[in-house]
Amino acid sequence: MIAVIDFGSQYTQLIARRVREHDVYSEIFGYNITSQDLDSKNIDGIILSGGPSSVYDANAPKLDKNILEMGLPILGICYGLHLMIKADEGNVLHKGQGEYGFSTIQPKIDSLLLEGISKQSKVWMSHGDEIEKLGNSYKIIANSSNNIIAAIEHDNLPLYGVQFHPEVVHTVDGAQMLHNFLFKISNCKKTWTATNFISEAVKSINKIVGENGKVIMGLSGGVDSSVVATLLHKAIGEKSRCVFIDHGLLRKGEAGQVMGSLKDGLGLNIFMYDESKKYLNALNGVVDPEQKRRIIGEQFIRSFERAAYDYEGANFLAQGTLYPDVIESGGSKLGPAVMIKSHHNVGGLPEDMKFQLIEPIRDLFKDEVRAVGRELGLPDLLLNRHPFPGPGLAVRIIGEITIDRIKMLQEADDIFINILLDAGEYDKIWQAFAVLVPTKTVGVMGDARTYENLIALRAVTSSDGMTAEWYNMPYDILSKCSTHIINKVKGINRVVYDVTSKPPGTIEWE
């Protein structure tokens, strides 16, 4: 295991992912973690992330200095490097202008960290501070083309630091440097595989549920909950029951698809509850997206409690929570993260729920879930399905939710997705959907004035949902989508395409 300590870098989650891509488990911890906290975990190495602060700022996040004396291999990146230098009585200089974008580094001496990289290696810089004085115990192993200290290592301990960002793809030899840190310096083993994860998850589920436990599995029809349902079936068999809640905010025809293809294809015992009236009544007049999530999160629990009553008092609830859900909801384990948006299955759960949660894939990114699904034998049709938010169309209708608006969005979204499937574009996209923006715009149809709603189309590419790029959709497909939606969906007279990446936007609009 590699512990990634977060000092506020925009790349922290990317560091964790890059480590896992080498089949080594990584976990993110808040900057206020102590050496005692880390000592209780089976850690092979530590990576200190970058961050937006200067180490001399009054409120700059600090590092427990005892962590540097644990004897574990440590790699400090950017701000993490500066913390190491400061702790060794070196000096970091704030120059104001900084260094951003591409640079090249030249290794000065042989070092395990830089083994196998080219003599003029292109790296990605993003820093306002730089090392002025090394301190007592470090030596320079590489300089940048701007004659800035680019990489260091300790004279006696397995402590290393880099001024650039090896975790981003722009750093050409970044993967090789991380490989060196993981396997040549930290002596990690490649044990973070789908096969090993399944084995450990099955053992963990059995241990948690025990002999007499019963589990309600919240099945949505997406890849995450389907993977969890299959893991539960593999671990405890008939002691788990899949429950599908129709909250009235699903895509067109989705309830029938789940009860048909999933029930037959996965061989799972699925029970459906139509709770749509309860959800829509609870959401009546609500416009704030966070309030929508909280309402839906609570309603889900109440629906599962009713299902548990039918299942002789099931005491566990299993759900497909992912690591990005936890991170975005501010759920860092030992230090608060900034909450971007709550997820109904993390930040929206009521405090008085009667279930103990089982979340077997809570520490996985989306691409890792798909790898586990393949190992479990789930069909590609299911594994490649685009993500769909638990709150459903509630976060794709801006403002108040009404039955008319739901139907309008269902029709537009169905047209969009079917055109993508027919054109062979669907599998090139990580997530695509329509958003209803109930802002009236003027149009003209059949020589008459119209004053109707706007539909926004969204399509992105990503591997895990933490970052995303808008998809460069062919114009002929956009034209076809616009024409079909406006002609076939009553109440829509304008279609736009969203060209915002994440960051700065999120994938969903609410």
Description:
The two termini are 35 Å apart. Mean pLDDT is 87; it is low at 331-347. This protein is an alpha/beta fold and 510 residues long. Helix 10 (323-328) links the parallel strand 13 (316-318) and strand 14. The strands form three sheets. Strands 2-1-3-4-9-8-7-5-6 form a nine-stranded mixed β-sheet, with helices on both faces. It has a five-stranded parallel β-sheet with strand order 12-11-10-13-14, sandwiched between helices. 32% of the residues lie in helices and 24% in strands. It is globular, with a radius of gyration of 25 Å.
N-to-C CA distance:
35 Å
Give the overall shape.
Answer: globular
Total number of strands? 18
Helix content: 25-40%
